């Protein structure tokens, strides 16, 4: 006779070894407002990546000296940055086809890391365009390759050497993305990313996604990162040695102008304010990353589970802001909550009289058992019209 | 007060418009042994892909004449194939960096389509290597690009022009994959794919995945495809006109030798024979493809949900066979069933006395309400040892 395991909180937990579950409870109870990250130790993979890259360059590069340039960056060097300059000048370190097209390259005096991607068939969703999850995945990939190719990578996923020595990791606290146009299968996109200081103890990472052929900017994103001790799970100041490592890479440019950024507080949803609550969402084994945590990007799928079906089908997701507050493991059953925020004013300049109003929603993911918040989010949606370009 | 939607069969169904649900029931009840496919109409994306490619070649190719070669294939031409020849000769049609590295190219007298991929960070799983889902996704992508680049593509996802005229689509009935080694983040893999006849009315598609740098074959896969009318959902013979289109591409080579292939029947699991049953698995909005069906590859994640946790953690999935039997939509709640088949004999040649025996499992996914089968599967697992290469 078969033993039946249902997706209730208790039975799923039983699949987790005791010590793992204890560790998770410990992590969740340190009372931090933020503790989610995907920059945990994946040492093996990082070492592998570096080895592969060198081999690739050795076999394909026309200028072997570029090897020194990649890893020989003088970290004490300073750069004069023209804040107003937005002219793109390609000063790539290595232009071998394999490196340039599969791994990315530095441009603009090594302040910007650029990587090209082709949208794959399985990265598109029901409306045949790249999903928001796909975009976020590509942003993550570009950020990680930026850190690795900068020569700063320590033993963690995106951590620098000085951070690794101190058992520190980057954790993302907020990410905001604005999509002007979603790409289709076979479209080639080019992603630029760079970092800058954010207050005293934060780092800002921005991205721009361009259509490779038209050069049109189709997506902009910005994110805030802070440093956490991976053992105590407590936030800490950026140590001077770490600041010394990353500061030479700081680039004073913003992907999203201040007045267009979404930096407003996201309201907490409760049973009384949520319009829809989807319960019983169970992380799958395949949602876990190397650290047995749910990958940041996976939250998007769960958030969308409580969005009305007609909105998913008839609207483009044009803007999303995620505020990460807590880690999540496979043992946690989740609830996805959504509530309409307000209707965006109809565009008075629009020629179309019957144009549907855009939609704004507030979302929250929380643990099903203790209702602890995992992530708050805000989304904005634009009614789909044929051959429509999104405007935010 | 919020309205709470739980993941029970009934409440989820209510989110589906009535006509959609009816259509799905109709599809499920035609009594076909197989009806799953990912080759449905995605016309827009296909057209887009072709346009992009041409633009890319025009801007980057050193030999503009190759444009004619890509689309000018004489479909009446015949090829003399040396069945025993396995020597790889690169006769690529277009070698512009963008095309070669992002889109793929024909090799071996245009019988083999080859595409290169870099494993991205988010395509790796808890053990830091590319997941089985990732491998299957890459195989799908290569197959679709093969059809598109062959110049045969009609308006469907992988369908030829003569098929589109007749409203016919390819459906996969069986796929078998053998993994010798899983790649890590940053590894570059090269995938070869080709097709051949399979009996009177089937087509076989094979793949080989190589480590780009070592040239080692790390994965082999083979699949069987038949033709279905996309409206009646009935299987049909390959029309002469379609055979005429595809036959010039048939290539008499097998990725997996007959004696190493898994062509045995997969036993049906029932409540009494399943060791584990995971119920309440709910497809997410993001699991759907352009046709509101669950993408083939998504089944893998659900199958793994009923595999014992220690096996997922301590063993490599070295072999998987999927037998597709029915389509699945978002309205369907699923059950994942797993049962150990037998323990593989310990390798008597192994020096390691304490070597763990390999594992074999039988799986089934079925609808939760009417217990209708969706997919049967068989997996084989190899105990993880450090720096271990998998042997099947």
Shape of chain A: globular
Number of strands of chain A: 13
Task: Give the CATH level 1 class of the largest domain in chain A.
Answer: Alpha Beta
- CATH 4th-level superfamily of the largest domain in chain A: Hotdog Thioesterase
Domains of chain A, number? 2
Topology, pairings included?
Two copies of one chain form a homodimer.
Chain A: E1 3-5, H1 9-13, H2 18-28, H3 43-60, H4 66-71, H5 97-103, E2 105-107, E3 112-118, H6 132-149, H7 161-165, E4 168-179, E5 188-198, E6 202-211, E7 217-229, E8 235-236, H8 240-246, E9 276-281, H9 298-304, H10 309-314, E10 315-324, E11 334-343, E12 359-367, E13 373-383
Antiparallel strand pairs in A: 2-3, 3-5, 4-7, 4-10, 5-6, 6-7, 7-8, 9-11, 10-13, 11-12, 12-13
Helix pairs in contact in A: 3-5
Would you mind describing this structure in some detail?
2 copies of one chain form a homodimer. Chain A is 23% helix and 27% strand. Chain A is an alpha+beta fold and 392 residues long. The first copy, chain A, has 2 domains: 98-263, Thiol Ester Dehydrase, Chain A, CATH 3.10.129; 265-343 and 355-391, Hotdog Thioesterase (Thiol Ester Dehydrase, Chain A, Roll), CATH 3.10.129.10. In chain A, strands 2, 3, 4, 5, 6, 7, 8, 9, 10, 11, 12 and 13 form a 12-stranded antiparallel beta sheet that branches. The radius of gyration of chain A is 22 Å and the shape is globular. Chain A starts with a strand and ends in a 9-residue tail after the last strand. In chain A, 50% of the residues are buried. The model of chain A is unreliable at 1-95 and 344-355 (pLDDT under 50). At the A-B interface, strand 1, helix 3, helix 5, helix 6 and strand 9 of A face strand 1, helix 3, helix 5, helix 6 and strand 9 of B. Strand 9 of chain A pairs parallel with strand 1 (3-5) of chain B. Chains A, B: It is an enzyme of class 3 (hydrolase). Chains A, B: Residues 112-245 form the Acyl-ACP thioesterase N-terminal hotdog domain.
């Amino acid at each position: 006779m078969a033993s039946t395991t249902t997706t209730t909180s208790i039975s799923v937990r039983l699949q987790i070894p005791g010590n793992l579950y204890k560790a998770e409870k410990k992590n969740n109870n340190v009372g931090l407002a933020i503790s989610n990250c995907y920059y945990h130790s994946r040492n093996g993979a990082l070492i592998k990546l570096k080895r592969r890259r060198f081999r690739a360059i050795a076999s394909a590069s026309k200028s072997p000296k570029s090897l020194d340039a990649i890893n020989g960056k003088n970290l004490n060097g300073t750069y004069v940055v023209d804040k107003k300059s937005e002219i793109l000048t390609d000063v790539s370190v290595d232009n071998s086809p394999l490196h340039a097209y599969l791994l990315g390259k530095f441009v603009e005096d090594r302040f910007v890391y650029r990587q090209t991607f082709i949208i794959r068939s399985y990265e598109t969703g029901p409306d045949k365009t790249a999903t928001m999850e796909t975009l976020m995945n590509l942003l993550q990939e570009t950020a990680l390759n930026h850190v690795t190719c900068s020569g700063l990578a320590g033993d963690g996923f995106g951590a620098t050497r000085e951070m690794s020595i101190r058992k520190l990791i980057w954790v993302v606290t907020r990410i905001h993305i604005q999509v002007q146009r979603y790409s289709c299968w076979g479209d080639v996109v080019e992603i630029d990313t760079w970092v800058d200081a954010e207050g005293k103890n934060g780092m800002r990472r921005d991205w721009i996604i361009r259509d490779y052929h038209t050069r049109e900017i189709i997506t902009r994103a910005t994110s805030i990162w802070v440093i956490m001790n991976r053992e105590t799970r407590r936030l800490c100041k950026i140590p001077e040695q770490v600041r010394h490592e990353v500061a030479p890479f700081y680039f004073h440019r913003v992907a999203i102008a201040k007045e267009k950024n979404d930096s407003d507080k996201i309201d907490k949803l409760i049973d009384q304010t949520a319009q829809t609550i989807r319960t019983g969402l169970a992380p799958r084994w395949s949602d876990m990353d190397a650290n047995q945590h749910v990958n940041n990007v996976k939250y998007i799928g769960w958030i969308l589970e409580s969005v009305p079906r007609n909105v998913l089908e008839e609207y483009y997701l044009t803007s999303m802001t995620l505020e990460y507050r807590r880690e999540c493991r496979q043992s946690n059953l989740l609830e996805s909550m959504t509530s309409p925020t307000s209707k965006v004013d109809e565009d008075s300049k629009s020629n179309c009289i019957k144009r549907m109003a855009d939609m704004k929603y507030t979302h929250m993911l929380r643990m099903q058992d203790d209702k602890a918040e995992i992530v708050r989010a805000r989304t904005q949606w634009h009614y789909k019209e044929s051959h429509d370009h999104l405007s935010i």
